Amino acid sequence: MPTPMDDSLTRGEALLHEDLITPLHDHDEARNRLLAKIDGATRVVSPEAANSYATTVRPTPGVDEVEHGADGPKTGRRGLFKGTLIGLGGLLAASAVPRFSFAETTGDLLICVFLRGGFDGLSAVGPDDSYYRKARGSLAISDPAKSKSLGGGFLLNQYLGALGPIWDAGQLAIVRAAGHPKVSRSHFEDQAMCERAAAANVRSGWLGRHIATSSATSGTFRAITIGDRVVLSLTTTEHQSLAMSSVESFDLWSAWNGRDALVSDISRLYGSAGGVVESQVRGTLDAVNALRTVRDTKYTPANGAKYPDSTFGNGMKDIARLAKAGIGMEVACIDYDGWDLHQASGSPYQSKGAFSTMAADLAKSIAALRTDLGSRWNSVTLVTMSEFGRRVAINGDGGTDHGHGNVQFVMGGSIHGGLYGTMPQLSPGNLVEGDVPIITDYRQALSEVVSKRLGNSKLDEVFPGFTPGSALGVA
User: Fold this and answer.
1) Residue 329 maps to which CATH number?
2) Residues 215 and 308 in one domain
3) Is 432 helix (H, G, I), strand (E, B) or coil?
4) Nearest Cα residue to 15 out of 271, 203, 299, 235
């Protein structure tokens, strides 16, 4: 195989099989990696090398192995797939046979929003605490007249105000001082740890394990990522998950001869291959064609919903669009990057501040999705995750550094709204290395969502090594 290169990911990884290739996603795109286990050692590989590795390790007997010619792809699998989406390499894996049906599901649609970079919970929800106000200075939420009261002395940042109607409806739960108890303050390590929701030697994500252990029979669109690559949360050897940058862009395309010719070539090469390869190719083409039908239907948000014209806003609109399409979607993951605000985070009363701008986009996008879904919102649960919170004290650059405890949002039409968990007074003696202590394991709320809203009782398999404590009651 080609020599692996320390290369950033520039192509999609839809349909990758985690037992061969593991995608690792970092909030800093330059640190995204593909890992392959080769000769007993884990190595970083380029997208091209990963694709080549998949075709080499899992060849299909009887299919020619030829390369691209100067005038375009020649016949044969490797010539067809090299230089195209690396995710198509997943078609060659024989470890999982996805079930391609598009039945409606009986549990909630779970939307998982990962706030990458370390979301500043104390700039989102501020306590009535003199120690907090002193340590935070200009970043403190301190004016009740310009904030949403949550009761108990806690205030919601005014630029998250679009979440106010969800709170007033009793559909927004806020878990305080939440996080992973083994946080390291490393973006890369803590993101992976949170997405696994298990020990480091568990090479799958909590959502992937949920999908693998629940009894629903839907397939291709059962779990999707809106973004460039399947998130680690969804990785599993038992099921293939799908990534798409947008509904509009999800298709197969060849620079040499266009979409239809590429689909025809794939069908010709694999349509009669037999066994797993044939079933997976046919299923994948069915998936592409199914979404093409969705894409060809003009979408207008319902109920006057207006999404922000932003990457996140458009992603949430796509999730609503797919939720209404009846294609069996059970889990949708979407990232919101950029929360690593070490400098110039901005006052909670500064409309153009870095945190305020993103917070408003986040809240307005979620609010628009709720409006757009209408009564479907009653069977939707949205959860937020972040690798860690921020330190209590403002730093010398007007920002905050990596911390521990954070806030966790859980919302939906069947969620019990309110403040959950405890957070002590933020006096120096109550902090952990200057940080909000982690008092509530973030998996506690997730486990209640998985069992109560998603109907999966196999919590020991979804969250191995975690024993749920006293129920918070969020679901």
Assistant:
1) 3.40.720
2) yes
3) strand
4) 235
CA distance 219 to 325: 15
Nearest to 99 by CA among 266, 251, 284: 284
Q: Is the dihedral of CA 333, 110, 415, 446 positive or negative?
A: negative
Domain region containing 56:
21-92+253-270
219 and 350 within one domain: yes
Q: What is the dihedral of CA 69, 74, 80, 82, to 10 degrees?
A: -20
3-state secondary structure of 179: strand
Whose tokens are 């860690």? That residue is 388
Count of domains in the chain?
2
Note whether residue 124 is domain-resident: yes
DSSP 3-state assignment of 62?
coil
Q: Is 15 within a domain?
A: no
Q: Are residues 211 and 62 in the same domain?
A: no
SS3 label, residue 51 = helix
207 and 183 in a common domain:
yes
Tell me, yes or no, whether 424 lies in a domain.
Answer: yes
Residues 67 and 174 in one domain: no
Residues 144 and 76 in one domain: no
Question: Beta-carbon neighbour count of residue 351 at 10 Å?
Answer: 11
Q: Dump the DSSP string for 361-421.
A: HHHHHHHHHHHHHGGGGGGEEEEEE-S--B-SS--TTBS--B-S-EEEEEEETT---EEES
CA dist., res. 368 & res. 461, Å (int): 34
In one-letter notation, the amino acid at residue 80 is L
270 by DSSP, 3-state: which? Answer: helix
| Judgement on whether residues 53 and 126 belong to the same structural domain of the protein | no
Is 102 inside a domain boundary? Answer: no
Q: Which two tokens stand for residue 209?
A: 């394990």
Sequential pLDDT tens for the chain (475 residues): 333 333 333 333 323 344 566 655 444 556 666 777 777 777 787 777 776 776 677 554 444 343 444 444 444 444 433 333 333 333 333 222 232 333 344 578 999 999 999 999 999 999 999 999 999 999 999 999 999 999 999 999 999 999 999 999 999 999 999 999 999 999 999 999 999 999 888 889 999 999 989 865 546 678 888 987 889 999 887 766 777 788 877 766 555 555 666 666 666 666 565 555 666 666 667 667 777 778 888 899 999 999 999 999 999 999 999 999 888 889 999 999 999 999 999 999 999 999 999 999 999 999 999 999 999 999 999 999 999 999 999 999 999 999 999 999 999 999 999 999 999 999 999 999 999 999 999 999 999 999 999 999 999 999 999 999 999 999 9
**154-156 and 125-126 beta bridge pairing:** antiparallel
* Same domain? 213 vs 68: no
DSSP state of 191: H
DSSP state of 373: H
Q: How far apart are CA 327 and CA 423, in angstroms?
A: 41
